[in-house]
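Quick one: TlpA family protein disulfide reductase from Chitinophaga agri, structure tokens please.
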Amino acid sequence: MGWKRLFSLSNITTGIMTLFLVLMLVNPSVKAAVMQGLMKVGLFQPAVPEEDAVANSMAPDLALTDGNGNTFTLSSLRGKVVFLNFWATWCPPCRAEMPAINALYKQYKNDKNVVFLTVDTDGNYQKAKRFIDKQRYELPLYVAESRIPGELLGNSIPTTVIIGKTGKIVFKQEGAADYGNQKFIDYFGQYIRK
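--- reply ---
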């Protein structure tokens, strides 16, 4: 009688839920997978602003370096729409939004008017590159060569900023978001066509 009581449906369900919660707390991949699932059902949508609600302040300059040691600045990209994402490999929300960012990148990677910059906030290019490669993402990876200005990155990662062709910030999202959302894709596309 004791074994039947120990392996009751209620105890098994409680054990599975407890295991799931522990995994969510200690494993960034599990937490990221749950967040990706929630994105697919409509949560974590980017806050697309109304046209007149955009602050349109000039983006401060920032020096970035790629894996080959090539350095450039944001100001050198004027005339292009810049999708700038700050993230880290250990960050579950960052991991959760990466598939949608990668899909958006693949959609626009051949457009000469658009530049995607994924910036590892830990400054460890090799570790971030291993993560990108393991996940089979095509995203271009960079590290900051100078202090990241607060106008671009506050106290939260992931943070995504879109800089319009004139160098003005037209969008900023702190926290994970589903950039595969059609409303966001339409919003992003309007800056490319301008």
